[in-house]
Amino acid sequence: MQATRIAAGVCAVGALIACDGGGGGGDSPPSNGGTLTGTVAIGAPLAGVEVLVLFSAFPTSAQGQSTTTDANGNYTITLPSGARPPFAIRAGNVGQTANPAFPRLFSYSTRASTVNITPLTDLLVTRLMNRKQDDTMGVANLAATDQEIATATQQVKTYLQSRSAPVDASAVTDFVSTPFTPVPGNPYDDAMTALRQSLIDGENILGIEEHMMSAGDIQSDYSQLFPLAFTANCVPTQDGLPSGSTQISLQISGIAIGSYAYTFQQPDGDQIVVQTGNDEFWRFFLNTTNDQVELVRNLGGTLSTLRLTLAAGGQSVCTPSSPVSLAGKWPSMFAQVKQLANTMTSGSITCSGGANTLSIDPNGAVHAAPSGFTLSLISSSRIVVAADTAVVVGAFSTRMRSFYAEQVFGDTFDTFSVSLTNPAGAITSGEFSRKRGGVTTGC
User: Fold this and answer.
1) Contact 122, 209 (CB under 8 A)
2) Tens-place pLDDT, residues 90-115
3) pTM for this prediction
4) Among candidates 177, 113, 179, 127, which has minimal Cα distance to 155?
5) Tell me, which fold does domain 223-320 have in CATH?
6) Which residues does residue 107 pair with via DSSP β-bridges, in sequence order?
7) How far apart are CA 299 and CA 277, in angstroms?
8) Which residues of 363-395 are buried (b: 16+ CB within 10 A; e: fewer)?
9) Candidates 3.40.50.2300, 2.60.120.1060, 3.40.980.10, 2.60.40.1120; CATH matching 4-198
């Protein structure tokens, strides 16, 4: 295996890790670099998989190195002098199709030593970040203590034991630094094998992360966005639109963007579209004026931009003057799947062989019977929900009109979609399509 050095200067191109390396200052003495070595496995070794490590390098630049696992899933990366922890490590990428349930795995270490990369280290990183990780950047910016890592490790073990098919990882003391050989009979390997064998059709590491973090979420009615108030710098495309420093307020009664104001129709009449997963946004369709207001959330869970688009022409793009956290305001995938389950009341979709009824189980999977099609909705790459809004006596609520989920498998994908009547929740149309392995099946 030949380690490849990734050019410094990634900060300049906005890539993966903070330029200051998370602390230490420019006068910190260089370290000896050290060596990262470990095993990439999922209950079987992953051979030929790219491993990328990101780290801070003395004095200011951020660097990375990569290599490829051998036939036994092992890798070794020799760090350059000046490399400083923490180390953020990723194995695989979304384009890897050999193991669609585990297209990428993350790990994290505060030391240059043994660093395994497995589903268990991935769940550990998810617990440390308190959210699903989207890329290596968030992992690189972690600053976890040994106690926090120990606490998160126990939380992952407790979660695994609570799954419908319990997974016992109690014999694995340290997910990251415990050397192991991925063969049956090894406690570490046996735990991963049990996890892999417990997956339902279409369930992947994204869904496992979502289940661990969001299984307790209540169904979403999309009212949690309100209230949201902040100051932003707005750049309009024409005169008369919000410009410069602008006060923005989203309340259950309506939206104010500087001098622009819109009152939500009562009792109903406006719509929202919410996309969760890839390219997350929340879009209001304001029926009285046919204007649109769109909020975009970035990978770190804060507001990236707000865009006002007028039906008459022109738009203003507003960037928050300081970070605006959307924690607790953006619905999880699981919360939206629960909303679908509680909205959908009757109807069917047509599959080969006739009509099929749909049901959603407590673990976020949709089932079509009698065809037997199953898909883990919470494992989706993205979910898009359209809903009608209702504002009555100072309360904001919604009624789901359509639900779309997409799960990527390399260059193909599975999809599930359904349209519903309002307010009855009856299915008017739907599709259940699987395109894996070059074969398209579904309803």
Assistant:
1) yes
2) 998 655 545 778 988 999 999 999 99
3) 0.86
4) 127
5) Lipocalin (2.40.128)
6) 89
7) 10
8) bbbbbbeebebbbbbbbbbbbbbbbbbbbeeee
9) 2.60.40.1120
